[in-house]
Amino acid sequence: MKYRMRVTPQRCIGCRTCELACAFSHPVEGVGIGQSRVSTFDMGDDVFIPLLCLQCEDPACVKACPVEALVRNEETGAVEVVEERCIKCLACVPACPFGNMYPAGLREPVVKCDLCKGQPKCALFCPTRALEYLPV
Known about the structure:
Elements: E1 3-7, H1 17-25, E2 39-44, E3 47-51, H2 60-64, E4 70-72, E5 79-81, H3 92-95, H4 121-125, E6 131-135
Antiparallel strand pairs: 1-6, 2-3, 4-5
């Protein structure tokens, strides 16, 4: 069964639980907590918008990668980074029209949402269901 992430900004209360769940779900060796792949933007007047990779049908990031280091996981539907192939050129970062590709450092592959291998923790821990992982 195919699933898709649904974002409902009207439900977001800006608690940033999604960011913490994501960061703890992607630990960095020697550090523990990793970089979150979801960001919550405060638009003012108690309006918050959670942003994460939309797993586009025809992703610009994939087209921009010169070494095919971004590939779709057929099981989860997520566009994932194949770290062994990534040459850290960062061409995918500006290619994403939504700003959801993140440089992890000068000598590190980029990071992006991988849907936590089909069980996105951001959606699991969202107290208001602003993020939901639902069957298509």
